[in-house]
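Subject: for your reference before the review

Hello V.,

The reviewers asked for a structural picture of the protein, and I figured it would be easier to keep everything in one thread rather than splitting it across files. Below is the amino acid sequence we used in the manuscript, unchanged from the supplementary table.
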Amino acid sequence: SGSRVAAGVGAFVALYALSAFLAGPCGFTAARSSFALWPLALLLWRLCDPSTPSLLAGAATAVGGPAIEIGLLGGGGAFPEPFGHLYAYANPDVLGIESWILPVYFAGGPAVA
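And here is what came back from the structure prediction:
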C-alpha cells in the first residue's frame, strides 16, 4: 500500500540521517555506526513490513548496493583506473566503502518490496 511504502521510505531517510549524525557530531567510526544502525534497521523492517519479501529485498539491497558502490569506488584500490574512483567515502573501512551503509541499504527493503 501507499502508506507502507511511505513509511518505508521515511524509515530509510531517518536511518540515513542518523548515520550522518553518528559519524559527525557523535564521532562514531564506520564500524561503530554499523553496530548501532543494524538493530534499528531490523526494527524498522519489523515495524514497517515484517514480510518475507521485504526481508529478502532488504537483504538484497544490503548486499547489492554496497557491491555496486565497491565497483564504482574502485574496490578500495583493488581495481585500477579508470574503473571506479567516481567518488569516495570519508573513512572507508571495507573495500572503499563505510560499513554503516549496509544497514542503511537494508532499511530500504520495505520501500522496494
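For the response letter, the relevant points are probably these. The longest helix spans residues 2-23. The mean pLDDT is 87.

Happy to draft the paragraph if you're swamped.

O.
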